[in-house]
Amino acid sequence: MKINWFRYAAPAAFYPVAGRLVPVFGHAALALMLFALYWGFFETPERLGGSNPQKEYYRIIFIHVPAAWLSMWLYLVLAGWSAVGLVFNTRLSFMMANAIVPTGAVFTFIALWTGAFWGRPSWGTYWDWDPRLTSELILFFLYLGLMALHSAIDDSRRADRAAALLAIVGLVMLPVIFWSVNCPDPSNCAALHQRSSLSSIEGNILTAMLAMTLGFWLYSFATAFARLRSIILTREADSAWVRDMLAREGAREGLQPALPEGAISSAKPDAGPDASPETQGRAGA
Amino acid sequence: MLRVFWCILSRDITLALRRRTDVLTTLFFFVIVVSLFPLGVGTEPALLRELGPGVVWVAALLASLLALERLFAADYLDGTLEQMLLAGQPLSLLILAKVLAHWVLTGLPLVFIAPLMAIQYGLDKAAIWVMMASLAMGTPVLSLLGAFGAALTLGLRGGGILLSLLILPLYVPVLVYGAGAVSVSVIEIADTKPYFSLLGAFLLAALVLAPPASAAALRISME
Amino acid sequence: MRVPRRKVARAPERSHNSMIELVNDFFRQGGYAFYVWGAFGVTFLLLVAEVLTLRTSRRTILRRVGRLARLRGMQARSPRGAAGGADFPSIPSDIQPSIHPSVPPSVKDRKQAVGSTTGDLK
């Protein structure tokens, strides 16, 4: 059986698929996040840890850790799509990478903010250059750099490819940066984040944390697809399929604005898709 | 191939020396920034000795960044860069030549000025040697990484600031270990060995990986 | 660490009393209310803000692209014809972005292809 891997690589083909997926992922994400919140607040003990337990504020773990995981995972994903785009020269891959960046930046910021708010009661200070938080800060700068570079370039093709290359180089540099911040003194690495493994965490806490991670992950799918749809609309504005779709849906969604004055005086408003030769002349897909 | 390398290198250096002020302003920027910090944080000697390595390194970073905009800009504007892309020679080699010229004009002078700056911060002789060595190994990496950034932001308005935003995160490892080497040398000079190993590793990796990445970025910017 | 103390109203029925206490305890979070709710609150706000931003930007884009598409459709049917030069004098200038001069003339400009001068609606 021959699978056409590139069937959905056309923006026009993926646009409706993404449209159907957004509410699915959105609702699932909401359900999971609510479950995780309930479980985290009501089914978990009031203290975390053995000898020197953290008090109720440890509950911040339920958003801090998932947000940090997602921030790193989303960067990996967007670098992956960037690579796919550069190798196969598919526009949609670049658009997808571009759609993921803001969500990744949001999660990075959440990780930093919740980390600071967790640090204040437990370490005594909002920020103290803990290696993991510092690396998270640099990851935030990388996301900002991606957004800045993409918006600074007007030509969308160059913007896509430049941002893609930056994402990949950033990905290669990330372990080096993380490691250098974690170990500024090569002979002696110390960090405030204790070396902890997942298996040592109490069951209910782990459940809530993993549930929230999954919730965040599904949320990122939903927002990325929604943003992707907007990007597709903007980029493909000239093409026939967008025009046809808007003519059909515009009437439904009630998005028919008044015609601007000074437009063609003698033209009649178009009433539907037109099969005339000019669609061939302006097929910009 | 070596002839092409030499040709580009000598061309860039000759052109830059005709505009000596550009080279000198970078150097003076470095001097001013380093001199400004004690005015800001206070002149207590112990504090300055602690801060010295970091401050000198950050100033070297910033000075390097300043000079990077000029790496490709002039050639881009008059079309020479396009000719380089069309030439049959490997673009990585040409970029390496340009980066070497850039380093000779901005990084190397920093290495020699650093002792004067170190004296301002009260660092002792051993620390000064370590600082020169770390700068000598670190500034080429800055130029190499910077070339990638300069290629990405070629011709963009506001390119200088954008370049800084993109490249400064990538500079962090070099900064950490370069400044760290000097800080540690104050305590015990033998401790600097792992730092230099790491700096050397960065240099080798950058020499191999940065030119092709910059070449890719250049092609993207110029198509 | 200063722990805020709140007086719980003493109601006659005991079950109602402990319910209020439970809710109060939940909001107090052992005295760390500021940190816990500060963290959760900002997270919630950011995620909601992201969703709302997406909604409004989608509406704006639909309106703008829809208007553009409709105008193009009308223009195409007008006597001026479609496959001609890139002159659409009656399109309002705010929805026709200008070509920025940051691209040097030696670069191939495929954006100057027939009719599609607005390929960079960002």
Short synopsis of the structure:
With 223 residues, chain B is mainly α.
Q: SSE string of chain B, helix = H, strand = E?
A: HHHHHHHH
**N-C termini distance of chain C:** 51 Å
Oligomer state of the chains in this structure: heterotrimer
Number of strand elements of chain B:
0
**Rg result of chain C:** 30 Å
Task: Give the count of structural domains of chain B.
Answer: 1
Q: What sequence of helices (H) and strands (E) makes up the elements of chain C?
A: HH
Main β sheet profile of chain C: none
Helical/strand content category of chain C = mainly alpha
Helix content of chain B: over 70%
Unreliable segments of 5+ consecutive residues of chain B: none
Q: Please give the alpha-carbon distance between the first and last residues of chain B.
A: 25 Å
Q: Calculate the mean pLDDT score of chain C and round it.
A: 66
- Kindly estimate the percentage of residues of chain C that lie in beta strands according to DSSP: under 5%
How many strands appear in the DSSP assignment of chain C?
Answer: 0
Apparent shape of chain C: rod-shaped
Number of helices of chain C: 2
Average pLDDT confidence of chain B is: 91
Number of helices of chain B: 8
